[in-house]
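Annual report, structural modelling task.

Input specification for the nickel (II) ion complex:
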Amino acid sequence: MAILDILIFPDPRLRQKARPVEQVDDQVRRLVDDMLETMYAAPGIGLAATQVDVQRQVIVIDVSEGHDSPLCFINPRIVAREGTEQMDEGCLSVPGFFETVTRADRVTIEALDRDGNPFRLEADGLLSVCMQHEIDHLDGKLFVDHISILKRQRIRHKLEKQRKERQHAESARAREAAAEPRRSAI
Ligand code: NI
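The model returned the following structure:
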């Protein structure tokens, strides 16, 4: 298993639409395992393949208290939605920000499991919100698309600033490393 890099908003790759998985094979199962490891390490309660720069319709979720009930949805589709609810949402691709988003209260999802078998799941509460959030990612959408333009721009500017600061720090470190005298042990 491996921990994958998570793309950060406003990375344009987060706007790509994921393709359906044609066959659930070992390669897809490896992606699922890597995504779970990445999600737990972050730590987060959901992750979509789009966030790790893989344009396939795969999401993983674990909303359990003990972080011991991983769920995997391949080619997920929302087939029914009911009611509305508001919840504060965050996202591993929008680190450090939480905003209130209105979504369906109850959804029914059809998907394939890790073995490629179709299943249907009805959910409400946090699991319902999480599934809608992750399926949005596969469509190239982020929770910040559900809030005001002003708030979205503010988040975008702050994250872009942080990225520039990180890049400056990295290039400063690289310059220092290059300036160090070369010594060889013989
Ligand atoms: Ni997210």
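The chain is about 35% helix and 25% strand.
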